[in-house]
Structure formats: structure tokens, C-alpha cells
Amino acid sequence: MLLDRIAHLLHWLGFAAFLGGAFAQQTFMNASTRGTLHPAVRDAYERISANLVTRVELPALVLQVVSGAWFLFQVPGFMRMGWMHGKLTAVLILLVLSHVEMFNARAVARLRKRKGDAAAAEIAQRKRRHAQLGSVGTLAVVAVLGLVAFGR
After folding, report:
1. Theoretical Cys-Cys bridge with 56: which of 21, 67, 114, 138, CB 3.0 to 4.6 Å?
2. pLDDT tier for residue 3 given thresholds of 50, 70 and 90
3. For the chain, what is the mean pLDDT?
4. How far is CA 138 from the centre of its chain?
5. Collapsing DSSP states into helix, strand and coil, what is residue 137?
6. Residue 76 carries which DSSP code?
7. What pLDDT score does 152 carry?
8. Contact of 136 with 93, CB cutoff 8 Å
9. Cα torsion at 54, 57, 61, 62 (round to 10°)?
10. C-alpha–C-alpha distance, residues 68 and 73, integer Å
11. Would the pLDDT of 106 be above 80?
């Protein structure tokens, strides 16, 4: 019983940390596109975005997956519920998206460090892709919340 409560707490903390990390890293990456920013601030925003997705968003998502696997192990009957399959699909999408965002954000920071403004076109393209990934991630989070709220 206590282990289940701890798993629930970790699941909720992971969800909160994931949402916070995802929102913050998208916000910093978006803010770095403003042409009025000083280059040093822009570069810092790009690095912060890459660090957030790597150090907050992904580990929080992994925590959710581990604690969620614990729930499924404890109550295998969940796997007979259709909404759970939808939720797991959305979580898989989030896992893939977060990894792609991580690679993309780290590439932006790396390009900026190595090539500076000479890589501006490639960086701008990667930032547009990053925003698109964030939009898809938002839809996946809404799907998870909707399936949990209305599927049960």
C-alpha cells in the first residue's frame, strides 16, 4: 500500500516536472528567436533550452514511465482497458518527441558554439522544427489528460 502511494507520488511529480520542463524549454527556445536579443542572451537561452530538455523533461518522463510500469505490474487489468492503450500510445509519442527535441536543441546549441551566426539559416530551421515538435507534444499531453479524465 505504501509503495503504491509512493509510486503515485512519483508519477505525479514526474508529470509536473515533465510539464514544467517541456514548457520552459519551449519558452526559452522560442524566446531565443527574437531578433532584438543580445547575441549572448540568445546563446544562453538556446543552451538553457537544451539543458532543460536533457536534465528535466526527459528524466521526469522516464520517472513517469517507471512508476507507470509499476502500476501496470500491480494491476495488469489496466491493460484490458481501451483508454490505457491510448494513453500508452500518447506516452510513447511523448518519449520519442522528447528525445527528438533533445537532439534538436543540443544541435542548435552546438551549431551556435561552433559556427556562430554563420549557421543562422540551419539554426532557424531547427528552431521552427522545435516549435512544431512542441505543438505535437502539447496535443499528446492533452490526449493523455483526456484519456485519464474521461477514459476511466
Report:
1. 21
2. confident
3. 96
4. 9
5. helix
6. G
7. 77
8. yes
9. 30
10. 9
11. yes
pLDDT at 6: 92
Contact 68, 18 (CB under 8 A): no
CA atoms lying within 13 Å on the CB side of residue 1:
0
Please enumerate in sequence order all residues whose Cβ is within 8 A of that of 126, keeping only pairs 6 or more positions apart, or say none. Answer: 104, 107, 108, 111
Nearest to 62 by CA among 26, 114, 32, 21: 21
For the chain, how many structural domains are there in total? Answer: 1
pLDDT digits (tens, 9 = 90+) for 42-101: 999 999 999 999 999 999 999 999 999 999 999 899 999 999 999 999 999 999 999 999
What is the end-to-end Cα distance of the chain in Å, rounded?
21
**DSSP codes, 78-114:** GGGSHHHHHHHHHHHHHHHHHHHHHHHHHHHHHHHHH
Half-sphere exposure of 69 (CA within 13 A, CB side): 6
Structural domain including 130 reads: 2-151
Count of CB atoms situated within 10 Å of the CB of 10: 17
C-alpha torsion 119→125→128→132, nearest 10: -130
**Predicted TM-score (pTM) above 0.85:** yes
For residues 105 and 130, what is the distance between their CA atoms, to the nearest angstrom? 7
